[in-house]
Specification:
This protein has 382 residues and is an alpha/beta fold. Helix content is 52%, strand content 12%. The structure holds N6-methyladenosine-5'-monophosphate (6MZ). Residues 19-340 form the Adenosine deaminase domain.
Length: 382
């Protein structure tokens, strides 16, 4: 540890080193180049999948382009075997990035070779297989796509509830996602999910839609995804904001996703600023780390850098994310224990070393990783 203590560490390395909590990651938006290749994608479709990151400087970006990219991943994960490979690769990537808790979400699809039920079984099996191998706690949220009609959504819900009863330790919640300009929030469907014991995380206000936002806030989900156009300064209505302030529902913030899709102009204009200022609950998330070529460390770094957040405050956000997660109370305790251990045993001195003014984008220091061996803690965790 001695050389770790004497080292000056950049914000970027600090964000890589600390254990992280990910609450909003879509499976088929989180595939890296290597796995896309292994799944049979050619160079053209891989660069198509990542093309939004190439046009970051374009002045008129929009969300529509994003939703044309997911079918590339969907085509590559049509069989159980490939879906399993994709899930494993995503879990591995998060683990490599020092994520200790991952809530992965995915939309069950029926394909020629697999029913919706088999889709869920495959992802659950992979999560279980990875548990001891990668030492990362993974939970599953199952998504309903906004394009699904009522019958199809009801069918999905029935299967999701059945699978939740079979795998209560893994399947924790349900999500509404997909193109925000299509479809609507069906409160009856999500009420049934809630009664069945599923936690609810609803994509909300990714684009301006004050009427739907009111419906979602009245329903009162456990968490909200994005919530870009909720605050009045970001095209939300005062009425909805007042309602939100009564409920204080945790918001899953996905900075790079919003900037690349153009729903937020620049990082420094992200609505996370309002949440930080007013001490409202939020988590820092990747959304689609493959499509947006990001990871949890980079997202934590953006928050520190653009909003002048101190290491201790960032670490506090991490504790808050554990609290907002769908893990059991016992699991939350163990996650907090890991965070505490890293804080006190390994990183005590780093907090005094990291200064905003010292920010430099130096390459990862491999030795630093070796010094910070988290393995003993994981032995205690499981
Ligand atoms: C809304 C999104 C999204 O479910 O096939 N998805 N929905 N807003 C976003 N912001 C950019 N990013 C991803 O993963 C891909 C699916 O997640 C949803 C879309 O429905 C997309 O098809 P799964 O694993």
């Amino acid at each position: 540890m001695s050389n770790l203590k004497s080292k000056k560490i950049s914000i970027s390395n600090f964000c890589k080193l600390i254990p992280k909590i990910e609450l909003h990651a879509h499976l088929n938006g989180s595939l890296n180049e290597d796995i896309l290749k292994q799944l049979g994608c050619d160079e053209t479709s891989i660069s198509e999948y990542q093309k939004l990151t190439e046009i970051l400087n374009k002045t008129s970006r929009n969300l529509d382009e994003c939703f044309h990219l997911f079918p590339i991943a969907h085509n590559a994960t049509k069989t159980k075997e490939k879906l399993y490979m994709a899930t494993k690769s995503v879990i591995k990537d998060f683990k490599k990035d020092n994520t200790i808790y991952l809530e992965l979400r995915t939309t069950p699809r029926s394909e020629e070779d697999m029913s919706k039920e088999e889709y869920i079984e495959t992802v659950v099996k992979c999560i279980n297989d990875c548990k001891s191998k990668y030492k990362i706690l993974v939970k599953l949220i199952l998504s309903i796509n906004r394009r699904q009609d009522d019958n199809n959504a009801e069918e999905s819900l029935k299967i999701i509830i059945k699978m939740k009863e079979k795998y209560p330790d893994i399947i924790k919640g349900i999500d509404l996602s997909g193109d925000p300009k299509v479809g609507t929030f069906n409160e009856n469907l999500f009420e049934k999910a809630r009664i069945a014991g599923l936690k609810t995380s609803i994509h909300c206000a990714e684009v301006k839609n004050n009427e739907e936002v009111k419906k979602i806030l009245d329903f009162g989900p456990d968490r909200l995804g994005h919530a870009v156009c909720l605050h009045p300064a970001y095209e939300g209505s005062q009425e909805n904001w007042d309602l939100y302030l009564q409920k204080k529902i945790p918001i899953e913030c996905c900075l790079t996703s919003n900037v690349i899709c153009g729903t937020v102009e620049r990082y420094e204009e992200h609505h996370i600023q309002e949440l930080i200022n007013l001490r409202l609950p939020f988590s820092i998330c990747t959304d689609d780390k493959g499509v947006f070529r990001t990871n949890s460390s980079k997202e934590y770094e953006h928050v520190m850098k653009h909003f002048k957040i101190s290491p201790t405050d960032l670490y506090q956000f991490n504790y808050n994310s554990v609290e907002q997660s769908f893990a059991s109370d016992e699991e939350k305790k163990r996650l907090i224990h890991v965070l505490n251990k890293v804080l006190y045993l390994f990183l005590g001195d780093i907090f005094s070393m990291v200064q905003i003014k010292d920010y430099c984008d130096e390459p990862v220091d491999e030795q630093l990783y070796r010094d910070l061996n988290l393995a003993p803690m994981w032995r205690e965790f499981y």
